[in-house]
Design goal:
The complex is a heterodimer. By secondary structure, chain A is α+β, with helices and mostly antiparallel strands. Helices cover about 50% and strands about 20% of the residues of chain A. Chain A starts with a helix and ends with a helix. In chain B, the strands form 2 sheets. In chain B, strands 1-2-4-6 form a 4-stranded mixed sheet. Chain B is about 40% helix and about 20% strand. The longest helix of chain B has 14 residues. Chain B has one domain. Classes of the chains: A alpha+beta, B alpha/beta.
Chain lengths: ~725, ~100
């Protein structure tokens, strides 16, 4: 199934459950917080339905939301009838969700008419909310299911209908009403108040409470009850398994398992791989179905072993073990367990804790590496053993790291899914027709990145449509198709994820950028004039830059490209832009794949070790002293006909060791926000993977530092923020 | 009116028993405690009539052809008339062993 739908299903199910819980709690006693929670759940559900473009669900939820909003506006508790209607709405939603799960698509014939009608009736008749039902309000459902266990498995809905006492006078026949319900399975009748004697019975007064089990959804039942639905309690019973049900399920499972054993028995003479495989599959599925996933896995493993070894014994043992084991408690919850076996949702902070622990483990492993080196100096057998074990540990830790990173990985589709809508809405607002072409949405990235990249991308898409794409007349004059195309591309490049937003608009007028930057005094006029086009273009990333002539509600409010660059930089990424006048603009966002480990290169300056993030480093080189020339108070080098500003790291950090103050140290060329910068250091060390920790405490105010990391020998490595260093 | 008393003293419900039959049935049952109600010919049973049957607890015999009555109402009547010492001895035997008495 489509990733978006899968996500939608998971989220919607949770919300349906949550809203249901809140509504049921509200039914017992009004609680402002519960009410707001329920309201929010309905609202979010509706929003989700909008994202996947499920109109009927949106419509149904809209009614429920309206009903709740009305109660809020009148600052009164929600009536029992409203709660019932909202629950019916949730039931319908749950049913749709189940359909989506089965078919993998949004049901085309879904119709919210019944729900809409339900709420319409609720709104027309004044609420007849009686006393809040007792805690065991739906005990009657269990009684009913118990009394009709033969049909209980088919039942989806239970109804308890208490007709008005005077209904006979109004020529109503409650029994006929029940008889007319669709999918009727069973009916029961009980007196509302104890029966009088026959002589005292008023035959024109209705003293009946009718309960019924139905094989149809609560929504259909409510619709069939029509105006009387207000006098009926309607409960969804699908999935409400009876103890009896569970028992029979377990015994049915046992029978199937025994049958599989017999099959294997007869296969013993000549080993038949196909039969063993199918028996294994059946047994595993049966166990999974009854919620014994652990045993199910055991059987599956045993089947694989049996096939590998060419004998049935392992599978026979595994099935027999499952048969002999007592079924776990609470088998009644099989349905829920079945789902749980497929995916488990884990709170993000637990995963984060795992990530943190893995980080610590990597550091510990690195420090063990350090010890191994020390031991090697001793040249002992111990050193060899240590080295081997360190290698094994390294392999395991690397695997663990990959697994942990994998847990946090999401496809970018999750971030991209809301953009087609965004473009559609924006193009309507700006009166520009545009389509969004998305590619590479399967590209995966760390959850943090996927979540945090949405906002910068929204900025970029808005910019593309607002500033990039010309209006219809201009496009026509330029001979371009009226429909503009905005391309959103994602790709994995090594340890990076690259996302590009490209439009086929007018491109950026670099001269205009220079003018705007001068007017706003973003940089000295001469400096701007001396910039290459590429560098000048990069000015649009500066805070306070905006060339938009009109401030629309979309962009041009001063939060522009600088916000994008800041947000991306926070994720350890970089933004670059290229443009061709008349043909369009492309903004390229480069992000790390994982935020768990950072690759750094160690350098020495002023006698101290520093780390430089490797993704910024373009190359390292040595140049003769003569090729470093002064530019004003600063220095620069010329590399391949380009002038690159140069700083000496030790100078910048203010701890230049006098005795090593030569100018012949290696130079690191780094890509910094679209420009090259050169940093001269005293020596270049090794590359390493580190867990970058943000600075805190005394160091937090230090400029030029990105963070710190623990070294294998227990020392601390300060990691530089080269962009700040070069400035 | 869809309730009548046969020559044999059997109270018969037939056709569509409406709300107006409830009072008549009640009268008949009060007049002849212990009478048996025969409802094979009943096509529809109004809730008010069911109410009288549930309170009067007569012995009920026959099996209507209407599915709703046979499948859903008969068991209710059967259960409620299963009172000890009353006219109905075992609800099941009259439900599943219809007699022909006309």
């Amino acid at each position: 199934m489509d990733e978006l739908l899968t996500q939608f299903l998971i989220e919607s199910r949770e919300l349906v459950d949550k809203a249901g819980e809140d509504l049921l709690a509200l039914e017992k006693a009004h609680d402002a917080k519960r009410f707001e929670d329920a309201f929010r759940a309905f609202h979010t559900l509706k929003g989700g339905a909008g994202i996947v473009e499920f109109g009927a669900m949106q419509e149904a939820l809209h009614c429920a939301e309206d009903a709740l909003a009305a109660a809020r506006a009148e600052s009164r508790p929600v009536s029992a009838l409203e709660i019932g209607n909202c629950l019916a709405c949730l039931d319908q939603v749950a049913e749709w969700l189940a359909t989506i799960e089965q078919s993998g698509a949004i049901p085309q014939n879904a119709d919210a008419g019944d729900i809409v009608a339900l709420f319409a009736r609720g709104a027309a008749t004044p609420s007849t909310a009686g006393a809040a039902p007792s805690a065991a309000a739906d005990a009657w459902v269990d009684t009913l299911l118990g009394a009709h266990s033969d049909t209980a498995s088919e039942a989806q809905t239970a109804v308890r209908y208490t007709p008005a006492a005077d209904c006979f006078f109004r020529h109503e026949d409650p029994l006929a009403l029940i008889a007319g319900l669709p999918g009727l399975l069973a009916v029961d009748v009980e007196p509302r108040s104890p029966w009088p004697t026959l002589a005292d019975l008023d035959p024109f007064s209705c003293n009946l409470t009718i309960t019924a089990l139905l094989a149809t959804s609560s929504v259909e039942v409510a619709a069939a009850l029509g105006g009387e639905s207000g006098r009926a309690e309607i409960e969804a019973v699908a999935g409400r398994a009876l103890p009896l049900d569970a028992e029979s399920l377990a015994s049915a499972a046992a029978e199937i398992l025994e049958a599989q054993l017999r099959l294997l028995d007869s296969a013993d003479t000549a080993f038949q791989q196909g039969r063993v495989a199918s028996v294994g599959l059946v047994a595993a599925n049966v166990l999974r179905y009854v919620g014994r996933s652990l045993e199910s896995d055991n059987v599956a493993t045993a089947a694989a072993m049996a096939i590998a070894e060419g004998r049935v014994a392992p599978l026979v043992q595994a099935i027999a073990a499952a048969l002999n084991a007592a079924p776990p408690e609470g088998v009644a919850e099989t349905g829920r367990r079945k789902e749980a076996a497929q995916t488990i949702r884990v709170a993000a902070e637990r995963i984060d804790a795992l990530v943190r622990l893995t980080g610590e483990l990597i550091v510990a492993k690195n420090s063990l590496g350090h010890s191994v080196k020390l031991a090697e100096a001793e040249d002992s057998d111990l050193a060899v053993a240590l080295k081997n074990q360190h290698a094994a540990l390294e392999r395991l830790v690397t695997e663990l790291q990959r697994a942990v990173v994998g847990m946090r990985v999401l496809p970018l589709r999750v971030a991209f899914r809301r953009f087609p809508r965004l473009i559609r809405e924006l193009s309507a607002e700006l009166d520009k027709s545009a389509t969004l072409a998305i590619s590479g949405e399967d590209t995966e990235a760390d959850k943090t990145i996927v979540e945090a990249i949405v906002e910068p991308l929204v900025h970029l898409l808005r910019n593309a449509l607002d500033h990039g794409v010309e209006d219809g007349a201009t496009r026509a004059a330029a001979g371009k198709p009226a429909m503009a195309t905005i391309r959103l591309r994602a790709a994995r490049e090594g340890e990076h994820v690259v996302i590009e937003v490209a439009d086929d608009g007018a491109g950026i007028d670099v001269a205009a950028v220079r003018r705007a930057a001068s007017e706003r005094s973003l940089k000295p006029r001469e400096a701007i004039a001396a910039m290459s086009d590429e560098e000048a273009l990069d000015l649009i990333f500066m805070p306070g830059f905006s060339t938009a002539k009109t401030v629309t509600h979309l962009s041009g409010r001063g939060v522009g490209m600088d916000a994008v660059r800041t947000a991306v930089a926070r994720l350890g990424g970089a933004v670059a832009i290229r443009t061709t006048v008349g043909q369009g603009t492309a903004v390229r966002v480069t992000l790390p794949f994982s935020v768990l480990v950072t690759q750094v290169m160690t350098v020495e300056a002023g006698g101290q070790l520093f780390g430089i993030p490797l993704d910024a480093v373009v190359e390292t080189l040595r140049v003769e002293k003569e090729r470093i020339f002064p530019v004003g108070a600063a220095h620069a080098i010329v590399l391949r006909d380009r002038t690159i500003p140069l700083v000496r790291l030790a100078d910048v950090l203010g701890n230049r060791a006098k005795d090593r103050a030569d100018d012949s140290g290696p130079i690191v060329i780094a890509q910094l926000d679209g420009q090259l910068g050169a940093v001269q250091v005293e020596s270049i060390g090794e590359r390493m993977e580190i867990i970058l920790k943000p600075l805190d405490g005394l160091l937090s105010g230090m400029p030029g530092l990105a963070g710190s990391a623990l070294l294998g020998d227990g020392g601390v490595l300060l990691v530089l923020d080269l962009a700040e260093v070069v400035q | 009116m869809s309730v009548r008393v046969s020559e044999a003293g059997l109270i018969e419900l037939y056709g569509r028993c409406g709300v107006e039959d409830a009072e008549a049935l009640q009268r008949h049952l009060l007049a002849a405690p212990g009478a048996t109600v025969e409802w094979s010919g009943c096509e529809r049973l109004h809730a008010s009539v069911l109410q009288v049957l549930l309170v009067g607890e007569p012995r009920v015999q026959g099996q209507p052809t209407a599915e709703f009555l046979r499948k859903h109402v008969a068991p209710i009547i059967g259960r409620s008339t299963k009172q000890p010492g009353q006219h109905a001895t075992d609800a099941r035997d009259h439900r599943y062993a219809p007699r022909t008495n006309r």
